[in-house]
Amino acid sequence: MKGVTVVDHPLVQHKLTIMRNKETSTAGFRRLLREISLLLGYEVTRDLELTTTTIETPLQTMEAPTLEGKKLVFASVLRAGNGLLEGLLDLVPAARVAHIGLYRDHETLEAVEYFFKAPSDLGDRLVIVVDPMLATGNSAVAAIDMLKGRGAVNLRYLCLLAVPEGIEHFSKAHPDVPIYTAAIDSHLNEKGYILPGLGDAGDRMYGTK
Ligand code: URA
Fold it and tell me: What pLDDT is stored for residue 109 in this prediction?
């Protein structure tokens, strides 16, 4: 699929299978999500720009590559996005963070905004939006709308699971935003849940069901 990178690394697929299993505990699910976020983060940051810095090794001076970490923003769509955010911040501790509060109206499945806080200079940064489930695509589209409305121009979307209808909706609305996911599942059920999926990611992470 154009604009979609499926991170099919065996470790990602193995961990995802354990996360999908309904017998996996809340603690296990959270730990695996954090581990997977490190592997997905590796892929989504693969082409980050490097600068150099002068350092002294024990033997000589060198111009060594270093990340422009302050140029990066991780934008977490609350609440499940935080499960991916923590691992990503382990990878790039200097990154800035945005929080986007959206909930799904259970009748219409539309995304409703209730919170937004982000660095003011979004236009100067690569913004990686994180939310584990790309389902209808409503909240993903709304999150990108909100970020673009506040000046973001360079964006990527990172999730754990996506479905074709969500990808299509998202890509039509934001063809300039590449998607990174660990898997593309079959379809949505009538309540907007991904099948076979893993259930409600927020509930699985926080034990709120
Ligand atoms: N959000 C979830 O947490 N799970 C789904 O299957 C769809 C949306």
Answer: 73
